[in-house]
Amino acid sequence: MTLSILSSSLKGSLVRAARISAATSASRPASVWTSRLYSTGANNNSTGDKDNNKEAAPAQDSTAASDSEAAAAADASAQPADGAKSAHEEALAAKDKQIAECKDRLLRTLADMENLRQRTAKEVANTKDYAVQKFAKDMLDTVDILAMAIQNVPQEEISEGSSNTHLKSLHVGVSMTRDELLKTLRRYGVESYNPIDEKFDPNLHQANFQVPMPGKEPGTVFDVQKIGFMIKGRVLRPAQVGVVQSTD
C-alpha cells in the first residue's frame, strides 16, 4: 500500500512538471526561437563556407598551376623564337660578309683590268713608237758615212770660184741625200742632236777622249765625232764626243 502511494505521488509530480514545462515553452517569445533558427542557420552557413573554402582552395591551386604551366610554355616558345632570330642575324651577318668580300674582289678585279688596259695601251704605243727603232739604228751608219763624205771634201773645191763642177755637184747630191734621210727619220720620231759646246752628260754623250783645252771650260764638249740620235725621247744612240779635260 505504501508503494502504491509513492507511485501515485511520483506520477503526480511528473505530470505537474510536464505541465509547467509546456506552459513555459508556450510563454517564450517567437524571437527566441527565431534567434535559435538563425544561429543554427549561421552555424550551418559557416560550416558550408568552410566546406566551400576547402573546395575553392584546390581550385585556386589548380589555377596557379595552370598559370605556371602557361608561363613555362611561353618561355619555352620564346626561347626557340630567340634562337631563330639569332640564327637569322648570324645568317645576315654571313651574307653581309660575303657581299663585302665579293665587292672587294670585284674592285680588285676592276683595278687589275684597268692596270692591264693601261699596260697594254702603253705596250701598243711603245710598239708603235719604237717599231722602227732597230731599222732606224741601222740607218744611222748610212747617215754617218754620208756625213763623213761631205766633211772630207775640201772647202776650196766646192767654193764658188772652183772650176771642179763635178765635185761640187757630187757634194750637193750627197748633202741632199743625207738631209732627205734625216727628214725621213724625223717622220718616224728619230731626231738628231749635236752637243757641241754643251756640258757633258753621260746619259746623252759618249766621251771617246779628253784633252785639256785652254780657254775652254772643263767638262764641256769641244768635238763631235758622231752626232747623237733620239727616238720618242729615248736615246737611240749617244753622241760620240771629245771632252775638255780639267787641268787640276
Please describe the structure with a list of short key phrases separated by commas or semicolons.
three-stranded antiparallel beta sheet; disordered N terminus; alpha+beta; three-stranded mixed beta sheet; 4 helices; about 250 residues
Structural class: alpha+beta
Overall number of strands: 6
**Residue share in helices?**
55-70%
* Spatial arrangement of strands, main beta sheet: 1-4-5
Apparent shape? rod-shaped
Strand content: 5-15%
- If helices are DSSP runs of H or I spanning 4 or more residues, what is the number of helices? 4
Our measurement of the CA-to-CA distance between the termini, rounded to an integer number of angstroms, reads: 195 Å
Which segments are poorly predicted (pLDDT under 50) over 5 or more consecutive residues? 1-6, 23-59
The Cα radius of gyration reads 69 Å
What kind of sheet is the major sheet?
Answer: 3 strands, antiparallel
Task: Give me the strand/helix succession.
Answer: HHHHEEEEEE
Summed over residues and divided by their number, the pLDDT gives a mean of 77
